[in-house]
Amino acid sequence: MYYSSDELKNLLYKVEVEHKLSVIYGLESGSRAWGFESQNSDYDVRFFYIRPANWYLSIEKRNDVLELGTSNDLDLSGWDIRKSLLFLRQSHPVLLEWLRSPIVYIEQSGIVQQMREIGEEFFAPRTSLYHYIGWAERILHRYFQRPDLAAKRYFYVMRPILCCRWIQTIEGQPPLQIQELINAIEMPIEAKSAIENLIERKRAGYELDSVGRILALDQYISETLPQIKDLLSELPKPEYVPFELLNSLFQKALEEFAAKPFPH
């Protein structure tokens, strides 16, 4: 099923009303944000939200994630602003990607841009490398023992590897779009041609269409992943974002949204 941006924006407004909170940022994650969606790819909609100030004045631990269902068409979930800021403190790669999504449905606070700037200033290469390596290895272990693969399996290994290469050779946060990574990273012409052909093939096909095995990509993965892992020890340990900075943002968010009525 196709959803327009307005339909997804309205869906997030409906979440605000039903759950009595404010969505301060709504975005697309997954293959549509990464640039290799299929004709029937689902929508991975993510969001940051904030509740009324008194919700945070509680001694018991409260749920800070909203999982609002997964269907064949839509996967919708969000994080509370406090959880989001704690992940920002750790330079969490998933949060950093969400902040830089090329597809934004809602952004109704300058706090989001401040989070982007903090994420860039305190970016931790080592943390991201561990994340992307782990991601690639999980897919390799689960799927790459088979003689036949869906196109998406290659992308879920190749994109993390290219993100690692970006961090190691260009430095800074890697872009979300896979084509930008391909254009920037040096790789054998056979592997580059294979991944670009696969992008076109996936966009023209369906999510789980089989592509068999692609020798040029298998070889690139088997040679490149160990090289990336060998360089991990050379990277410094991460520097956490100071709590004082995050507390200031959290308090600012509460003041900003407490000053106007929450949806009801």
Overview of the molecule:
The protein has two domains: 5-123 and 239-258, 2-Layer Sandwich (Beta Polymerase, domain 2), CATH 3.30.460; 125-234. It has helices at 5-19, 31-34, 81-89, 93-99, 110-121, 125-143, 151-169, 178-184, 189-204, 215-230, 243-258, and strands at residues 22-29, 43-50, 65-70, 74-80, 104-107, 149-150, 210-212. The chain is α+β, with helices and mostly antiparallel strands and 264 residues long. It has a five-stranded mixed beta sheet with strand order 3-4-2-1-5, with helices on both faces. A hairpin with a 3-residue loop joins strand 3 (65-70) and strand 4 (74-80). Helix 7 (151-169) packs across helix 8 (178-184) and helix 9 (189-204) crosses helix 10 (215-230). The two termini are 29 Å apart. The radius of gyration is 20 Å and the shape is globular. Helices cover 53% and strands 14% of the residues. It is built from eleven helices and seven strands.
